[in-house]
Amino acid sequence: MEPTGYETAHRQAECIFRQILPSCGMAVREGQIQLCHTMLDALFARDIALCDAGVGLGKTYAYLVAAILWMQQRALPLRQPVVISTASIALQDAILNEYIPFLSETLLRNGLIGSPIQTVLRKGKGRFACDLRLLQRQREVAQRGEKFARRLRVLQNVDACLDLDRVQGLTGYDRRRICVPERCEKGCAARNRCRYRRYLRKAEHDPIQIQVCNHNYLLADAIHRQNGWKPLLRDYSAILIDEAHKLPEVNQQMQTRSLRVADLQDLANRLARENLVHGAQQLKRAIHLLVAAFAVGPTERTDCAPFDPQEKQTAALKQLLHLLPASFQQHCGKLATSIRQEIQRTVQLTQRFLVQDAQWIRYVEYAVGPDTTRRFAALHAVPADLPSCLDAALWSQGKPAILASGTLAAGGDFSNTRRLLGLEHGVPVRTLQVASPFDYAHNCLLVFPKTNSRWKCAASGNRKIASQLCNLIKAAHGHTLVLFTSYEQMGEVYESLKETMDIPILQARRGSQTVVEQFKRCNNAVLLAGGPCWEGVDFPGDMVSLLVIVRLPFPVPDPVREAHRQNYPDLHSYIQTEIVPEMQQKLRQGFGRAIRTETDSCAVAILDPRAAPGGRYHQAVLNALPDGIPVTTKIEDIEPFLRAHKSPDYFLPNFDFN
Ligand code: SF4
Fold first, then answer.
1. Nearest-CA neighbor of 406 among 422, 396, 417?
2. 384 lines ligand 1 (CB under 6 A)
3. Contact (Cβ atoms closer than 8 angstroms) between residue 388 and residue 420
4. Domain 257-386 sits in CATH 1.10.275
5. Gap from CA of 131 to ligand 1 centroid (Å)
6. For residue 7, pLDDT beyond 60
7. What is the pLDDT of residues 330-372, one digit of tens each?
8. How far is the CA of 138 from the centre of ligand 1 (A)?
9. What is the Cα–Cα distance from 204 to 223, expressed in whole angstroms?
10. 196: Cβ below 6 Å to ligand 1?
11. Pick the CATH number of 5-118+207-238+399-434 from 3.30.750.24, 3.40.50.880, 1.20.120.530, 3.40.50.300
12. pLDDT tens, residue by residue, 149-177
């Protein structure tokens, strides 16, 4: 009897992972093969699979092979492309420029596919260059003479690169000036030959098997479909979501409705440019009233607060609401469509903040000014039931979906992820957790140095943390990454450390990719880092041989979390159900920086006293990390551990540690 498509796909997966890829130098990993089979099962059954794959398992090849084999077995009319959604540009690049070309060439050579795999990268208009606006901007900058020569060279580089994310040195201002506009000019002379239109034609009509996008674009497409607008992506047959732990955060971003001061000011400026001077002035006055009504005192340190309007705030919002429809009605015929839409959007938003509605969690955002005081920046409304929004946008379409990440399970449990993703009820979900193939029991040492619990908030605490870091860094002979949960604390520790240590100490603040690159180029250095370095940054080899986690990464309280807390009978159950699993997921992400290849070895020190033996979260920390890692409380154990794992070169005295 002829094998079914399902059987053929599973047999081919075995052949690819046990014969073809190993013949190209890749290791056979049973966990990876198991992952691919589970993904194939989910695709054939039109289910949703949550796959937690440990570092180094090769989950990307697992889902790519599963998707390719599944598509091949589908009847021709059903062969729509699949979508791969990621959270980072780095992973998109790797998928498009490394994984797929290699897999395509290898499968073609072995007769498993008949033609190369065709892909397209999909993203928003703001990320591509508009040839017309680029030319205008280049001319403007050229007229400014020699002083702007460097800027002009960057703009000229865009001639060879449609994708603005790939242009080095482009300023935010120039980027806004040259990106594809929300609406192209009607009579644009370049319409038929401009690069963006050519790219769009290819993306929308060429034979394509895989569309790659980020989570924001995937959800934007879903929202378009929900509203009956033109979809952004081509119709697809399945969704493969990598870095899936980021999806709830992106969902919140995409579902949040925001009334921003900056947007209102922009609207007023656009009205002025349309010669509606009176309307623009009135709007500016209304904005001024609004900003004054929501102003906070100079000592206020909060970045956001629940929306609990006082009388003057409600009055300022009513004033705005009264003004906008008036502008709209009076000048309706004269206004550009985009301005009319913006006015309508602002009216709807303002109404949202004038009517009580339990379906929305509302809060006020303050921005930190140059003098560190807080200024009113925006009002935000977040749907109270975000998981249902994700369900309605993605899962209820009935398409099979693979969600993969290294941190979907917390302490071996998927409950928190299922809750956040709206996958608790309804659609069939299968889960699989596969451990990393790395030998953590041998190559890793977990250190809980003795820490005084009173340090944690005391003014002198940061100096003491710096002193303890000094001892740790000396024990590890440098090669250290220190992860912080607070930039303020990082800055203070940095100031103390750089005075006491004769080794390059670098600090990577938000978006400091160049500092990370500098650290990687150093033979031996210490990097203090926050936010983005907890995940998605690779430090293979000896460059990170000591990873220090200063505080357990508990989520920061905010009005949305505060509102969710009200759904629990008591604080303890809220912390156990939501807060601890989130901390465990983030901790696993940070811990993942320690060992990136089979031959890496690293000591991991957690300074938070709550994580130490006997501490309140010690067991939760151990549950989050791989099994079998030896544990110590002595900093002196670090050096013998590293001496047993590193080559003699590692200990060469590059720096004086005294
Ligand atoms: S068609 Fe649109 S993107 Fe292309 S050059 Fe004209 S305005 Fe720019």
1. 417
2. no
3. no
4. yes
5. 6
6. yes
7. 666 667 777 888 888 899 999 999 998 889 999 999 998 777 7
8. 15
9. 19
10. yes
11. 3.40.50.300
12. 999 999 999 999 999 998 989 999 999 99
